[in-house]
Amino acid sequence: MAKRLKYWGWGCEGDGLPARDREALLSTLSRGFGIHGHHTGDSSPPPIDEIPLPPPRLDPPAALASMCTQEPYERVLHSFGQSQPDSIRIFAGDFAHAPDVVAYPRGEADIAALMQWAGEARAALVPYGGGSSVVGGVTPDIGGEYNGVVTLDMSRMNRVLEVDTESRAARIQGGARGPELEAALKPRGVTLRHFPQSFQHSTLGGWIATRSGGHFATLYTHIDDLVESVRCVTPAGVMESRRLPGSGAGPSPDRLLIGSEGALGVITEAWVRVQGRVRHKAAAGFRFPDFLQAAGAVREVSQAGLFPANVRIVDGVELAVNGAGDGSFTLMVVSFESSDHPVDAWMDRAEQICLDHGGLPDADWRTDPGAHLKGTVGAWREAFIKMPYNREVLTPLGIISDTFESAITWDRFEAFYHAVREAAREAIREATGREGAVSCRFSHAYPDGPAPYFAFHCAADPDGMLDQWRTIKAMVSDAVIDNGGTITHHHAVGRDHQPWYEKQRPPLFGDVLARAKAHLDPKGILNPGVLVPHPRPGAVRKRPRR
Amino acid sequence: MAKRLKYWGWGCEGDGLPARDREALLSTLSRGFGIHGHHTGDSSPPPIDEIPLPPPRLDPPAALASMCTQEPYERVLHSFGQSQPDSIRIFAGDFAHAPDVVAYPRGEADIAALMQWAGEARAALVPYGGGSSVVGGVTPDIGGEYNGVVTLDMSRMNRVLEVDTESRAARIQGGARGPELEAALKPRGVTLRHFPQSFQHSTLGGWIATRSGGHFATLYTHIDDLVESVRCVTPAGVMESRRLPGSGAGPSPDRLLIGSEGALGVITEAWVRVQGRVRHKAAAGFRFPDFLQAAGAVREVSQAGLFPANVRIVDGVELAVNGAGDGSFTLMVVSFESSDHPVDAWMDRAEQICLDHGGLPDADWRTDPGAHLKGTVGAWREAFIKMPYNREVLTPLGIISDTFESAITWDRFEAFYHAVREAAREAIREATGREGAVSCRFSHAYPDGPAPYFAFHCAADPDGMLDQWRTIKAMVSDAVIDNGGTITHHHAVGRDHQPWYEKQRPPLFGDVLARAKAHLDPKGILNPGVLVPHPRPGAVRKRPRR
Question: How confident is the model at residue B442, as a pLDDT?
Answer without folding.
Answer: 98
